[in-house]
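User: I'm writing a tutorial on reading structure tokens. Could you give me a worked example: one chain, its sequence, then its tokens, then a sentence or two explaining what the tokens reveal?
Assistant: Sure. Here is the example chain.
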Amino acid sequence: VQLQASGGGLVEAGGSLNLSCAVSARTFTNYGLGWFRQAPGKGREFVAGINWSGSSTIYADSVRGRFTISRDNTKNTVNLQMNSLEPEDTAVYYCASSIMTIAQGTEEYYNEWGQGTLVTVSS
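And here are its predicted structure tokens:
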């Protein structure tokens, strides 16, 4: 499985960004997918996860209600729509594939990672 994230950039607080991740996999629907982020000087943290079909999603408390994860199983992509962005959302964002088909919030279940895309939110 190979993942390629894109869509990061600089945005003002209150603004929106949409991240996309292209996934190369023999059977895309074998995998749950997720987004994680790592802020400067901090460890990597879970943001959002989605199951194989897109019918089930989970979110970190810090982003619930502002971010939406979705997947397109016809295009092999997973997206993260980020609204009402805050300076605290500044981080490198990573997409990842899980060893399980269900939506997962635990990093240990993710075994393949994209290269990351930087999101900077100015105050």
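What the tokens reveal: Residues 3 and 71 are 13 Å apart (CA to CA). The mean pLDDT is 96.
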